[in-house]
Fold this protein.
Amino acid sequence: MIHDPEGRISVEPNPGRICIRSGDTLIADTHNALELRETGYPARQYIPRADVAMHCLQRSDTVSHCPFKGDATYYSVNIGGTTIEDAAWSYEDPFAAMETIRGHIAFASPRLLETAGE
């Protein structure tokens, strides 16, 4: 089966700075985000794992399937005894058409603050 998101999904480098925070804790800080736009969904910033404080994330049991990207693995954010369930996700083995997001993590919890920096 061919998974071709052409016309539905676009992925472009984001030239700006993206920071993800939980309270005062910086979880991610990058100038290398990929902005993924998918019809019917808000734009998401996919951040390279190297720019994410992975020690703040704990893999959860949640998995979802996208017919265009593949299976997503979810992560909870754990900061100072507070857990934000399934606050981030990653396509660890995306379909070939979405290979560019391999090794990246997206965040989508309303309790996390995404900011653009300089």
Remarks:
- The beta strands are 9-13, 18-22, 25-30, 34-38, 44-48, 57-66, 70-79, 82-90, 104-107, 113-116.
- Residues 62 and 80 are 22 Å apart (CA to CA).
- The chain has a mean pLDDT of 89.
- The chain has no helices and ten strands.
